[in-house]
Design a protein that fits this description.
Layout: H1 15-27, H2 38-56
Length: 66
């Protein structure tokens, strides 16, 4: 399992983080290193979680949230 040096609490990637990494690898043309972009990705996924919770009024399932 990938450990993020400046990543989220505990340093573990959840499914959303892994999905963003996979998309970067697939569509980035090999020019994007997901580990170097971990800080930006974490901000994006945290914002997405917050928007989900605001819109639905429900917490993001533990499986998708770290």
């Amino acid at each position: 399992m990938n450990q993020a040096p400046q990543g989220n609490a505990g340093g573990q990637e959840d499914y959303l983080d892994k999905g963003v990494d996979a998309a970067e690898k697939k569509f980035g043309g090999g020019k994007i290193d997901p580990q170097k972009e971990r800080g930006v990705n974490e901000k994006v996924t945290d914002q997405a979680r917050g928007m989900f919770e605001k819109v639905t009024g429900k917490n993001v399932p533990d499986k998708f949230s770290n």
